[in-house]
Every structure is written in structure tokens, then in C-alpha cells.
Amino acid sequence: MIRLNNVDKAVDAGGGKLFILRRINLEIKEGDFVTIMGPSGAGKSTLLSIVGMLDSAWAGEFYFVDHAVHKMSPRDRIELNKKYIGFVFQQYHLLDSLTVYENLDIPLSYRNIPRKEREAVVADTLDRFQIVGKKDLYPNQLSGGQQQLVGVARAVIAKPKLILADEPTGNLHSDQGREIMELFKQLNRAGTTIIQVTHSEANAAYSDRIVQLKDGWVVGEVKPAQVAASGS
């Protein structure tokens, strides 16, 4: 589903280049549940942004569902993102001018789903996430945890083939966090590919593979049980 070949990401710094990612080679198959771990500044969120086609300033080759992303125009990348990907952002990225209901409706509208059908899906999702009472509120009227729940709901509502999650439970209390991770596991068992960035060993335990980043390099890949055993 995803193949990265020698992907580099650099920014200009003091007349030279500062590399955020170096020679990333990574393959993720459809149905995988992958965790990306590493210290702060390792490049985890940057890697997720590249895979999600939110960052276009990089070098190398990137293949996604048989598309050569590195050869595509920005417009075509956006369309590919809308068609296949749901994204859970660490900073929510809800649209402030839209209500909770409208924020959930947007991913469905991208897929040309009829209005009546969209209304039913949004209603089911509001119920599933127990946020029916928040549907007419705007993001700035919600707590951080409530915004995170809406962000997760928005990511999964259109049943994307790929979910990208950047610290998906960071603003939720432990019970809500477990519920979200169980939901991700259910979606994964049903065939959804998931890539998450997390510092949480408990969240990493839900995945099948852990890719370890350090200073922009992939330095290893382990099974979740190995991380738990090492206590790292």
C-alpha cells in the first residue's frame, strides 16, 4: 500500500541544510497496524505528514496504492488524500467556523455521498462517540478532550483505507483513550491500515509493528512485546 524509497526532508538553516528525515525506506502493506516511536525531534510527525500528503517539500520516491506520489501534482495529491486517508491530528485541526456536526459532514462530502445518507452516518457517529449533545457547538466551545474525540470521529467517519494518528489519545482520559485504541483495533481487524505516532507503550501494544526513529533515521523495527520487555 505504501512504499517510501530514500525519502529525505530538509530545511534551510544558517546557510546549510538541516535534515529532519534521512533516507527513509519503509514499506507498509494494506491491513498493517504500524506504530512510529522515537524521542522528541526524531521526525515522527514529519514522516506522518509526508505519508498523509500534507507535506510536499521532500525528496525521494513515495508510492501509495499504486500511485507514484512523487510524480503527482499538488492538486492530485490532495484528491488522493481525500479519497483514502483519515487523519487524527495532535492539535485537532477542526474547522473553527463549523459546528461539530458540520466538521463530521465534510469528509463525507468529499466522497460525493448523498445528503440523506450523510445525515444518517453523522447521526450514527455522534451517537457512537457520545457527542450528540455537542453537535451544534463550535470547536472553541469544547474542551481539549472533546475536540480530540471529534477529531477521531472525523477521521474514521468516511471509512478511509488508511488512518494516520498523531498521539491520538494525548488529550483523553485513560478510559476514553482505551476506547479509541479498541476502536482502531476493530477497524484494523476489518481491513483498515493504521499508522500511529505515540510515546505510549500501551497504545503501541495495539499495533503489529513498531518502527523506531532517531535523529531522522529509521534505526530499527521491533514487535510491541519487545518494547514492553525492554521498558524503553
Description:
The protein has 232 residues and is an alpha/beta fold. It has a single domain, classed as Rossmann fold. It contains 8 helices and 10 strands. The chain has helices spanning 44-51, 74-84, 100-110, 115-128, 144-156, 174-189, 201-204, 224-230; strands spanning 2-13, 16-28, 33-37, 59-64, 67-68, 85-88, 162-166, 193-197, 209-214, 217-222. The strands form 2 sheets. It has a 6-stranded mixed sheet with strand order 6-7-8-3-9-10, with helices on both faces. The protein has a 4-stranded antiparallel sheet with strand order 2-1-4-5. Helix 3 packs across helix 4 and helix 3 packs parallel to helix 5. The radius of gyration is 18 Å and the shape is globular. The two termini are 29 Å apart. The model has no long low-confidence stretch (mean pLDDT 93).
Main attributes of the structure:
about 230 residues; alpha/beta; Rossmann fold; 8 helices; about 35% helix; about 30% strand
Task: Summarize the entry for a quick read.
With about 230 residues, the protein is α/β, with parallel strands linked by helices. It has helices at about 45-50, 75-85, 100-110, 115-130, 145-155, 175-190, 200-205, 225-230, and strands spanning about 1-15, 15-30, 35, 60-65, 65-70, 85-90, 160-165, 195, 210-215, 215-220.
Please, what is the average pLDDT?
A: 93
Strand content: 25-35%
Number of domains: 1
CATH architectural label: 3-Layer(aba) Sandwich
**CATH topology group:** Rossmann fold
Question: How is the main sheet built?
Answer: 6 strands, mixed
Instruction: Write down the overall geometry.
Output: globular
The poorly predicted ranges are none
Distance between the termini: 29 Å
Per CATH, the class reads Alpha Beta
Q: How would you classify the quaternary structure?
A: single chain
| Name of the CATH homologous superfamily | P-loop containing nucleotide triphosphate hydrolases
Specify the number of helices: 8
Coarse structural class: alpha/beta
User: How would you spell out the order of helices and strands?
Assistant: EEEHEEHEHHHEHEHEEH
Radius of gyration: 18 Å
**What's the count of strands?**
10
Strand numbers in spatial order across the main sheet = 6-7-8-3-9-10
